[in-house]
C-alpha cells in the first residue's frame, strides 16, 4: 500500500485549541496553524518530468505558431522528390518534392489549434451544463443528466466520423463536431463536484446569509470545483488531437490545411520507400499528446493532494 | 424480482430510443450534407436524363423527405439497411460479410487487453518497487498517447518492410476469403495496445483507491498477509469500476476499427465504412453506423447486467428489496 | 505499572512521525509510555489531535505502510519487540494477539463480502475448524447480534449502524485476542445505540478475559469501562493512574482543566469552563522540555 | 418577534419508484429573541430538516414557517431579505461550513457588503474586525488574512458565529453547531453563545443530539423522533418529569461522568 492515511487518521492535527484567551494571547497561543499546505504550483514544479514536458509542449506550441514563418513554404515543389532527411531538408522531402519540415510545421499548427479549441469548448460546455445540473439539482438536473447520458451513450466517435465525413472539409466544423462528442467528460465531473459542494456547509451558510444562487455558484462552487475540471480539460486536449489526427488520416478534414493526420494518410503508400514521411508526423502527435497527458497527471497530483501523496 | 424487471425494461426502452435518435440524426445529416449522392454515383460520366430518372426512382430520391425517413426507419427495424448505391448490393449482406472480420479482432483484443490490464494495474498499484510502478505507469501513459493508427504504420514498417516477418496488409494471401493467422497479428497488437494502455491506467488508480479504503484496515487487523488483503479485499472492490470501463471500451474498439482496418487493409466493417465514405455510398455509411451503434448498445446492456450481478449493493436492490435492516 | 512479571503490552517512549505532504511531516506522537496487564482494561483519553488514535494504531500495527511513517521507541507484546519487526511478525501478532475495533462502522466493512466470510477470515488458520459456520455464528452472537445464521449471509449495506459496529466487534474478537484496541467505538453512533454497544463490548471482553484499550475523547465513556486511564495531550501522556483516582484527584493541571470543562458541560450549577489558550501553551512547552 | 412553525411537514420524494420519506411531520415550534430553544433527536429524527425549513433553505411541503405571522412562502423579495437578516444560521463545521478558498476577512466581509451593513473598504474591514473581537477572536487583525485550514475547530466555529451575528439577527438557528468539538472548546463556544444572548438579546434554536449540552443551556426543549415532535416542555419538565417513553430512553442513554467510575457491575 502506498497511500497516505494520515488524513483519515485525523490525529495528525494540531491540538484543537480555542481562539480565546485574555488579551492578545489568542494569537500567540493558537496552535501552530495546521502544517501549511504545500501549494499546488510547488508540488507541480518539483516534478522534473512535469517541468520537462511542459517545456516540450510550450516549445511545440511556439514552433507551431512561429515555425511556418521560418520553416519555409510547405507547398513549394522545386526540390528533388523523396529525399531522406539531410542537412538541407532536415526531415526530407515528399513525393512532390516539397520540404517535409515545412509541411510538418504547418500541420502542427492546425492539429494544435484543433486540440486546444476543442478542449476550450468542452470545458465551457461542460462547466456550464455540469454546474447547472449539479448545483441546482431537481428537474434541471434530471433533464441535463439525461442529455449528458444521451451524449455519452451514443457512439460518439463513430458519429463524429460520419458527421465529419458528411459535413466535413472545414476545420471549424470538425472542432464543433469533436466538442459535441467530447464535452460530457468535463460535464460529468463538474456535475459531481458541484453536487458534492452544494451539500457542503459553506454553500448552505451562504444561502442562509442571503446570497443569490448565481453568486454562490460563481464564488463558492466553481472555484472549488475547478481542480478536477482543469485536469480533465488538459487530457481533452490530447484526446482531441488524437481523434482529429485519426479523422485526417481517414481523409476527412480540410484539404487546404494539412494536419499531422493527413500527412500520415499521404505517407502510407510510401511506407516501403520513404519511412520518414510516416515517422515524423506521428512522432509529433505522440510527443504533444504525451506532454499534455503527463501535464494532466502532474496537475492531478498537484491539485488533488490526497491521492498519491506518499510514494 | 420485479424491481429488476422494471430496471432492465427501462434500460431496453432507453436503448431503443437511443437507437432511433441515432438513426434520425444520421438521416438528417445526410439531408443537410453538401454534395449529391446521385452525382457522386454517376461520377463525371455523361448520363442521359432517362438514366438519371431511373436511378432516382430506384433509390426513392424523388420522394419527400419524411416519407423516405419513415420508409428507412421501417426498413432498418426489419433488418433491411437498404442497397449500396455503388455496388448495388444489399447493405445488410455487405455488413454480414465484413462484420466477422471486425469482431474477431475486437474480441481478441478485448480479451487480451482486459486480462493483461488487470495484472499490470494491480502490480503497479501495490508494488513496493518504485521502478516497477514507474515502468508500468509510464509505459501505459506512453502507449495511451500514441495514435493507434500510427503505431500500426510503424508496426508495418518494422515487421513487414524492414524485417519482412509478417504481411503488411489484408486478411489472407492474394485477397482470398477467410483469415490467415499471420495477417491477424499486427492488427490485434495495434488494437490491443492502446486499449491496454487506457485500461491499465484505470486499473491502477482503482486498485490504489480500493487499497486506501477503511475496510482494508479491518482486513489488516485480522493479520491477513498483504497478498491476501490484496486478493480478497482490494481487487474485488477494484474490479467493479473495471466492468464499466471494459463495457465502454467496446465503443472505442469499434470506432478505432475504422483506423486500424484502413492501416492494415483489413476487410472488416471499418474499412467498408471508410471506403463508403470516400465513395459517398451513404446507405452503406448509415448501415455500418447503425450496426456499430446496436453493438455498442448491446455491450452497455451486458455491462449493466454484469454489474448488477457482481455488486451486492445493486443485486440486493433487485432481489431482496425491503429486506435491508433499519 | 508496578507489577510483577512481564506485562502483556509494554510501550516505552513511543514516537510517531506521519507525513502530511510530499515533504512535510508531523510528530503525531511525541512520547508515550504505557503498559497493559493481562485482563486489564485501560483507557486513553485526550482531545482531538492529542495523538491517541495514532498511539492505538501503532499498538495494533495499523499505521499506514508508507516508508515515510516513522515509529520509534518500543512496543512489546509479552516481551517481544515489535518496533522494526518484519511485516510477517506483525501479521502474526495481528492474527492472534491484538484485535482492533474502529470508529466508523460504515466504512470499515468490505462492501462486497458477506458478513459471515468477513468474520470467518478473522479466525486464525490453526483454529479454523471444518464446520466453519459454527465459529462464525458463535462470535456473531457473542457480539450481541441476533438471527446470526441469516445475518452471516448478508452484506454490510443491509445492516444498521449499531449492527455493523457489533460485526466489527465480532471480527476483532474472532481471533480471541489477548488485547483489544477499541478506538472511539461508539462515537459515530446515537446515544441509545452507543450504550448497548458499550455493554456488549464490556460483556465480550469479560467473557473472553481479554485486555482492553479503550480510546475516546469522551471521558464519561472511558470512566465507566476501565480500570486505569492515560490522559494524553499534544502527543504526550501527561497523567496516568487508576481511573477513579485520576478522575477524583487529577494531578496534572491539564487533567484538572479538562475535567473541569467536562463537568461544566454535564453538571448543574457549574459554570461553563473552557481551557484558556495561555495554559495550553505553557503545558505544551513543559511537556516538550520534560520529554527532551 | 416570533418565529413559528405551524404544522410544518416535509416529504422527500424518493427517486424512481421508491417510497417517499416523511422527514418532518406536523411540527409546531416557536422561538423568540432571547430564548434558548433546543430541538433534540437522534440521527434520522428530522431535526436538521426542520432547521433547514426554519432557515427557508427548503420549502415546507405543507404547513408553514412564519415570522411574526408572515408566511415564509408568501414573502416578497424585500421581506425575504429582512427575514435573512433576522434569522441566521450557524451550521456544523466539520461538514465544511467555510469556503477553503476564502480568508476569514472575506468570509465575514462579503456578508457585510451584501446586506450593506457598511460601505467602503475601510468601513467593511472595521465592521468585520469588531465582530471578530465580539466572538473572542482577538486581535482580529491577525485573523483577517487567515484561511479556514489555518484555524482550530473552535476558531472556525467562532467565524461562523461572527458571520451570523454581523447581520444583527434576532434569532440564530444552530444545527449541531458544537457537536463535533472537544469538551473544552464546546464549553467555550457555548459560553460565547450565551454571552451574545445576554449582550445582544439573540435567541437560539439549538439543534443537537447532545442531551447534556441541552440540559446545560436550553430553556425550552422539543424532542423529535422519526420526524415528529413527540414531546415539548421547559427544560425542567423534560429532564425531571419526561412523559414520552422515548425521552426517558434518551435521558438514560446519555453517559455522564458522575454516573460511574470503574467498570459497571
From TrEMBL, chain A:
User: Which InterPro entries does the entry link to?
Assistant: BP-dependent_transpt_permease, MetI-like, MetI-like_sf, OppC_N
**Membrane topology summary:** Multi-pass membrane protein
Is-annotated flag, keyword DNA repair?
A: no
Membrane-crossing residue ranges in chain numbering = 49-70, 112-145, 157-183, 229-252, 273-295
Tell me its family. Belongs to the binding-protein-dependent transport system permease family.
**Compartment list:** Cell membrane
Give the UniProt keywords, A-Z. Answer: Cell membrane, Membrane, Transmembrane, Transmembrane helix, Transport
What lineage does the source organism belong to? Answer: Bacteria, Bacillati, Actinomycetota, Actinomycetes, Jiangellales
GO terms for cellular component = plasma membrane
Name used for this protein in its record: ABC transporter permease
Which superkingdom heads the taxonomic lineage of this protein's source?
Answer: Bacteria
Q: Where is this region: Disordered?
A: 1-34
Question: What is one GO biological process annotated to this record?
Answer: transmembrane transport
- Ranges for the ABC transmembrane type-1 domain? 108-296
Q: Which residues form a coiled coil?
A: none
TrEMBL record, chain B:
Q: Which organism is it from?
A: Phytoactinopolyspora halotolerans
Which spans are transmembrane here? Answer: 101-123, 135-160, 180-198, 238-264, 284-310
**InterPro entries on file:** BPD_transp_1_N, MetI-like, MetI-like_sf
UniProt subcellular location: Cell membrane
Q: What is this protein called?
A: ABC transporter permease
Give the record's membrane topology: Multi-pass membrane protein
- State the family it belongs to: Belongs to the binding-protein-dependent transport system permease family.
**Entry GO CC:** plasma membrane
Arranged from A to Z, the UniProt key words for this protein are: Cell membrane, Membrane, Transmembrane, Transmembrane helix, Transport
- GO process annotations (BP): transmembrane transport
Q: Which residues form the ABC transmembrane type-1 domain?
A: 99-303
From TrEMBL, chain C:
| Recorded GO CC terms | plasma membrane
GO MF terms on file? Answer: ATP binding; ATP hydrolysis activity
The cellular location(s) given in this protein's UniProt record come to: Cell membrane
Q: Where is the ABC transporter domain?
A: 9-259
UniProt entry keywords in alphabetical sequence: ATP-binding, Cell membrane, Membrane, Nucleotide-binding, Transport
Topology in the lipid bilayer is annotated as:
Peripheral membrane protein
Q: Which PROSITE patterns match?
A: ABC_TRANSPORTER_1, ABC_TRANSPORTER_2
Main localization of the protein described in the UniProt heading? membrane
What's one Pfam family here?
Answer: oligo_HPY
Q: Can you tell which superkingdom this protein's organism belongs to?
A: Bacteria
The record ties this protein, via InterPro entries, to: AAA+_ATPase, ABC_Ni/Peptide_Import, ABC_transporter-like_ATP-bd, ABC_transporter-like_CS, Oligopep_ABC_C, P-loop_NTPase
GO terms of biological process kind:
peptide transport
Q: What protein family does this chain belong to? A: Belongs to the ABC transporter superfamily.
Protein name, as recorded: ABC transporter ATP-binding protein
UniProtKB/TrEMBL annotation, chain D:
Q: Which SUPFAM superfamilies match?
A: P-loop containing nucleoside triphosphate hydrolases
InterPro entries in alphabetical order = AAA+_ATPase (IPR003593), ABC_transp_ATP-bind (IPR050319), ABC_transporter-like_ATP-bd (IPR003439), ABC_transporter-like_CS (IPR017871), Oligopep_ABC_C (IPR013563), P-loop_NTPase (IPR027417)
Q: Where is the ABC transporter domain?
A: 3-251
- Which domain of life does the protein's organism represent? Bacteria
Protein name, as recorded: ABC transporter ATP-binding protein
Which UniProt key words apply to this protein?
Answer: ATP-binding, Nucleotide-binding, Transport
Q: Does the keyword NADP apply?
A: no
Which GO biological process categories is it annotated with?
A: peptide transport; transmembrane transport
> Which lineage is the organism of this entry classified under, starting from the top rank?
Bacteria, Bacillati, Actinomycetota, Actinomycetes, Jiangellales
Q: Which family does it belong to?
A: Belongs to the ABC transporter superfamily.
Q: Which CDD domains match?
A: ABC_NikE_OppD_transporters
**Pfam families xrefs:** ABC_tran, oligo_HPY
Q: Which GO terms describe its molecular function?
A: ATP binding; ATP hydrolysis activity
What SMART domains does its record include?
AAA
Amino acid at each position: 500500500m502506498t497511500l497516505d492515511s494520515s488524513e483519515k487518521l485525523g490525529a495528525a492535527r494540531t491540538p484543537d485549541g480555542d481562539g480565546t484567551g485574555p488579551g492578545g494571547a489568542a494569537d500567540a497561543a493558537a496552535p501552530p496553524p495546521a502544517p501549511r499546505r504545500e501549494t499546488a504550483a510547488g508540488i507541480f514544479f518539483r516534478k522534473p518530468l512535469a517541468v520537462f514536458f511542459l517545456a516540450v509542449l510550450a516549445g511545440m506550441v511556439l514552433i507551431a505558431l512561429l515555425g511556418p514563418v521560418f520553416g519555409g513554404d510547405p507547398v513549394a515543389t522545386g526540390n528533388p522528390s523523396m529525399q531522406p532527411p539531410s542537412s538541407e531538408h532536415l526531415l526530407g522531402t515528399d513525393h512532390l518534392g516539397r520540404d517535409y519540415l515545412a509541411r510538418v510545421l504547418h500541420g502542427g499548427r492546425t492539429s494544435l489549434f484543433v486540440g486546444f479549441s476543442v478542449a476550450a469548448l468542452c470545458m465551457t460546455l461542460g462547466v456550464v451544463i455540469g454546474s447547472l445540473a449539479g448545483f441546482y439539482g431537481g428537474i434541471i438536473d434530471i433533464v441535463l443528466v439525461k442529455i449528458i447520458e444521451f451524449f455519452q451513450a451514443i457512439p460518439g466517435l463513430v458519429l463524429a466520423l460520419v458527421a465529419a465525413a458528411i459535413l466535413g472539409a472545414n476545420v471549424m466544423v470538425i472542432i464543433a463536431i469533436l466538442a459535441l462528442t467530447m464535452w460530457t467528460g468535463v460535464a460529468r465531473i463538474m456535475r459531481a463536484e458541484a453536487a458534492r459542494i452544494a451539500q457542503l456547509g459553506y454553500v448552505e451558510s451562504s444561502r442562509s446569509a442571503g446570497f443569490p444562487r448565481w453568486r454562490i455558484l460563481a464564488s463558492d462552487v466553481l472555484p472549488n470545483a475547478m481542480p478536477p475540471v482543469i485536469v480533465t480539460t488538459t487530457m481533452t486536449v490530447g484526446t482531441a488531437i488524437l481523434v482529429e489526427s485519426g479523422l485526417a488520416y481517414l481523409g476527412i478534414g480540410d484539404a487546404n490545411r494539412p494536419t499531422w493526420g493527413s500527412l500520415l494518410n499521404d505517407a502510407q503508400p510510401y511506407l516501403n520507400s520513404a519511412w520518414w514521411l510516416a515517422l515524423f508526423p506521428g512522432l509529433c502527435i505522440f510527443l504533444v499528446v504525451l506532454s499534455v497527458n503527463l501535464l494532466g497527471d502532474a496537475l492531478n497530483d498537484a491539485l488533488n493532494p490526497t491521492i498519491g501523496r506518499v510514494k | 424480482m420485479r424491481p429488476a424487471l422494471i430496471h432492465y425494461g427501462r434500460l431496453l426502452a432507453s436503448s431503443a430510443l437511443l437507437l432511433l435518435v441515432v438513426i434520425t440524426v444520421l438521416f438528417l445529416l445526410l439531408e443537410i450534407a453538401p454534395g449529391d449522392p446521385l452525382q457522386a454515383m454517376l461520377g463525371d460520366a455523361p448520363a442521359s436524363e432517362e438514366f438519371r430518372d431511373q436511378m432516382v426512382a430506384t433509390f426513392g430520391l424523388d420522394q419527400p423527405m419524411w416519407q423516405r425517413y419513415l420508409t428507412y426507419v421501417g426498413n432498418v427495424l426489419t433488418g433491411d439497411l437498404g442497397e449500396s448505391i455503388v455496388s448495388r448490393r444489399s447493405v445488410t449482406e455487405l455488413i454480414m460479410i465484413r462484420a466477422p472480420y471486425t469482431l474477431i479482432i475486437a474480441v481478441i483484443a478485448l480479451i487480451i487487453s482486459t486480462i493483461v490490464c488487470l495484472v499490470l494495474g494491480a502490480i503497479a498499484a501495490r508494488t513496493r518497487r518504485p521502478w516497477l510502478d514507474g515502468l508500468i505507469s509510464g509505459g501505459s501513459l506512453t502507449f495511451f498517447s500514441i495514435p493507434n493508427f500510427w503505431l500500426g504504420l510503424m508496426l508495418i514498417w518494422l515487421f513487414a518492410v524492414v524485417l519482412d516477418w509478417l504481411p503488411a496488409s489484408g486478411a489472407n494471401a492474394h485477397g482470398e476469403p477467410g483469415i490467415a493467422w499471420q495477417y491477424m497479428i499486427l492488427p490485434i497488437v495495434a488494437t490491443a495496445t492502446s486499449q491496454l494502455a487506457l485500461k491499465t491506467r484505470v486499473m491502477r488508480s482503482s486498485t490504489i483507491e480500493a487499497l486506501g479504503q477503511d475496510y482494508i484496515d479491518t482486513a489488516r487487523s485480522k493479520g491477513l498477509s498483504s497478498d491476501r488483503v490484496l486478493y480478497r479485499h482490494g481487487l474485488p472492490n477494484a474490479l467493479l469500476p473495471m466492468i464499466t470501463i471494459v463495457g465502454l471500451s467496446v465503443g472505442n474498439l469499434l470506432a478505432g476499427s475504422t483506423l486500424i482496418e484502413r492501416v492494415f487493409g483489413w476487410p472488416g466493417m471499418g474499412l467498408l465504412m471508410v471506403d463508403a465514405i470516400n465513395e459517398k455510398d451513404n446507405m452503406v455509411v448509415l448501415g455500418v453506423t447503425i450496426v456499430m451503434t446496436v453493438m455498442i448498445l448491446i455491450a452497455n446492456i451486458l455491462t449493466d447486467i454484469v454489474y448488477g450481478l457482481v455488486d451486492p449493493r445493486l443485486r440486493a436492490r433487485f432481489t431482496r428489496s425491503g429486506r435491508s435492516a433499519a | 505499572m508496578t507489577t510483577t512479571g512481564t506485562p502483556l503490552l509494554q510501550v516505552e517512549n513511543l514516537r510517531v512521525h506521519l507525513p502530511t505532504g510530499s515533504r512535510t511531516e508531523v510528530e503525531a506522537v511525541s512520547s508515550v509510555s504505557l503498559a497493559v496487564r493481562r485482563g486489564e482494561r485501560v483507557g486513553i483519553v485526550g482531545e482531538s489531535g492529542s495523538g491517541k488514535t495514532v498511539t492505538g494504531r501503532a499498538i495494533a500495527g495499523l499505521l499506514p505502510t508508507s516508508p515515510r511513517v516513522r515509529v520509534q521507541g518500543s512496543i512489546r507484546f509479552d516481551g517481544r519487540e515489535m518496533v522494526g519487526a518484519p511485516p510477517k511478525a506483525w501479521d502474526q501478532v495481528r492474527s492472534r494477539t491484538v484485535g482492533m475495533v474502529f470508529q466508523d462502522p460504515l466504512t470499515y466493512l468490505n462492501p462486497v463480502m458477506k458478513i459471515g466470510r468477513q468474520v470467518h477470515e478473522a479466525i486464525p488458520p490453526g483454529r479454523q475448524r471444518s464446520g466453519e459456520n459454527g465459529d462464525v455464528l458463535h462470535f456473531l452472537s457473542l457480539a450481541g447480534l441476533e438471527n446470526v445464521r441469516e445475518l452471516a449471509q448478508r452484506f454490510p449495506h443491509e445492516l444498521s449502524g449499531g449492527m455493523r459496529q457489533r460485526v466489527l466487534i465480532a471480527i476483532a474478537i474472532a481471533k480471541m485476542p489477548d488485547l483489544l484496541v477499541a478506538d472511539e467505538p461508539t462515537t459515530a453512533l446515537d446515544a441509545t445505540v452507543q450504550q448497548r454497544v458499550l455493554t456488549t463490548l464490556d460483556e465480550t471482553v469479560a467473557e473472553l478475559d481479554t485486555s482492553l484499550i479503550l480510546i475516546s475523547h469522551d471521558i464519561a465513556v472511558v470512566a465507566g469501562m476501565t480500570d486505569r486511564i492515560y490522559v494524553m495531550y499534544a502527543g504526550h501522556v501527561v497523567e496516568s493512574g487508576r481511573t477513579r483516582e485520576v478522575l477524583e484527584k487529577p494531578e496534572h493541571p491539564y487533567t484538572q482543566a479538562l475535567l473541569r470543562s467536562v463537568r461544566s458541560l454535564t453538571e448543574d450549577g457549574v459554570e461553563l469552563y473552557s481551557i484558556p489558550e495561555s495554559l495550553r501553551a505553557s503545558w505544551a512547552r513543559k511537556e516538550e522540555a520534560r520529554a527532551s | 418577534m416570533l418565529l413559528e412553525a405551524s404544522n410544518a411537514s416535509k416529504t422527500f420524494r424518493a427517486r424512481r419508484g421508491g417510497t417517499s420519506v416523511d422527514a418532518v411531520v406536523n411540527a409546531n415550534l416557536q422561538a423568540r429573541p432571547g430564548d434558548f430553544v433546543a430541538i433534540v433527536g437522534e440521527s434520522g429524527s428530522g431535526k436538521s430538516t426542520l432547521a433547514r425549513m426554519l432557515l427557508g433553505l427548503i420549502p415546507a411541503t405543507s404547513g408553514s414557517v412564519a415570522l411574526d405571522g408572515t408566511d415564509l412562502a408568501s414573502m416578497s423579495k424585500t421581506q425575504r431579505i429582512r427575514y435573512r437578516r433576522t434569522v441566521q444560521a450557524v451550521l456544523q463545521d466539520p461538514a465544511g461550513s467555510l469556503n477553503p478558498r476564502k480568508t476569514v476577512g472575506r468570509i465575514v466581509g462579503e456578508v457585510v457588503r451584501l446586506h450593506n451593513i457598511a460601505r467602503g473598504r475601510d468601513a467593511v474591514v472595521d465592521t468585520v474586525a469588531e465582530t471578530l473581537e465580539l466572538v473572542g477572536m482577538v486581535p482580529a487583525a491577525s485573523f483577517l488574512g487567515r484561511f479556514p485550514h489555518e484555524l482550530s475547530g473552535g476558531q472556525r466555529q467562532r467565524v461562523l458565529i461572527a458571520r451570523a451575528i454581523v447581520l444583527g439577527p434576532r434569532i440564530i438557528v444552530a444545527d449541531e453547531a458544537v457537536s463535533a468539538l472537544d469538551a473544552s472548546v464546546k464549553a467555550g463556544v457555548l459560553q460565547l453563545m450565551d454571552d451574545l444572548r445576554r449582550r445582544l438579546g439573540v435567541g437560539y434554536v439549538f439543534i443537537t443530539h447532545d442531551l447534556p449540552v441541552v440540559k446545560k443551556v436550553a430553556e425550552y426543549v422539543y424532542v423529535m423522533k422519526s420526524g415528529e415532535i413527540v414531546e415539548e416542555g421547559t427544560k425542567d419538565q423534560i429532564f425531571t418529569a419526561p412523559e414520552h417513553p422515548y425521552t426517558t430512553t434518551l435521558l438514560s442513554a446519555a453517559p455522564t461522568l458522575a454516573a460511574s467510575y470503574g467498570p459497571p457491575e
